[in-house]
Amino acid sequence: MSKLPADFYLQEDVVSLAKQLLGKRLFTNINGELTGGIITETEAYDGIIDKACHAYGGKNTNRTATMYLAGGVTYVYLCYGIHHLLNVVSGKEGNPQAILIRGIEPTTGIDVMLQRRKMQKLAPRITAGPGALAQALGIDKQINAKFLTADEIWIEQAADVDEGQIVSTTRIGVAYAQEHALWPFRFYIKGNRFVSKPNNG
Predict the structure, then answer these.
(1) CA atoms of 164 and 185, how far apart (whole Å)
(2) Please, which pLDDT band fits residue 197 given cuts at 50, 70 and 90?
(3) CA angle 152–155–161, rounded 5-degree value
(4) Beta pairing class for 83-90 and 186-189
(5) Whether the predicted pLDDT of 201 surpasses 60
(6) Is 63 helix (H, G, I), strand (E, B) or coil?
(7) SS3 category, 190
(8) CB of 154 within 8 A of CB of 137?
(9) What is the CA radius of gyration of the chain?
(10) pLDDT exceeds 90 at position 71
């Protein structure tokens, strides 16, 4: 399979891109250990106009600076001081859009993922949820601002998921975003086990 080209990430419709990423294959190669799987769940964050986005209102800090880069790099941050979360920066330079990768279905390096997650056998919780998948793939702050066309972390081409198989719903954990918390910017593959809860379809 081939990596998604750099210009794929420059699309400015972050919602469309979040849907397009479903079914694509995400991989990491960290210290020679290859792990990866099929992207099953994403969330779109629409830059300075989105109250749920770290860069809402044009906020540009040491943490959010990566979001202002041109699409095609990673944005990794620490949530609640515990979980690293992986985002794909999208759109043009200066427009801080990003897509949170919330779930993958493991396909490669499952033994390594089990070890990283301190699990004995494969179960959906290994990579269902953004903190879990980052841990399983060995993602931490060292993976921030990495090009998705390089050899440490990348996304490969795959057939598009049919629109009828995509569930659109509200994002998780963004109640602070007031009315924007109701935007249907979370997407997942219907019926897939490797999706964080709630998964009502």
Answers:
(1) 16
(2) confident
(3) 160
(4) unpaired
(5) no
(6) coil
(7) coil
(8) no
(9) 15
(10) yes
Query: How many CB atoms sit inside 10 A of residue 163's CB?
Result: 8
Secondary structure of residue 171 in the 3-state scheme:
coil
Over the chain, what is the mean pLDDT? 96
What's the 3-state SS for 92-153?
CCCCCEEEEEEEEEEEECHHHHHHHCCCCCCCHHHCECHHHHHHHCCCCHHHCCCECCCCCE
Q: Is 29 helix (H, G, I), strand (E, B) or coil?
A: strand
In a 13 Å sphere around the CA of 193, the CA atoms on its Cβ side amount to 6
Instruction: Look up tokens 């990866």; give the residue.
Output: 36
pTM for this entry: 0.96
Q: Tell the burial category of 182 from Cβ atoms under 10 Å away from its Cβ (0-12, 13-18, 19+).
A: exposed
Rounded Cα distance, 157 and 151, in Å: 15
* 127: CB partners within 8 A, 6+ apart: 37, 103, 104, 105, 106, 113, 133, 136, 137, 194
User: Taking 80 as the threshold, does the pLDDT of residue 1 lie above it?
Assistant: no
Residue 48: which of 83, 113, 94 has the closest Cα?
94
Residue 197 is given by DSSP the state: S
Q: Let me know if 139 is exposed, middle or buried by CB neighbors in 10 A (0-12, 13-18, 19+).
A: buried
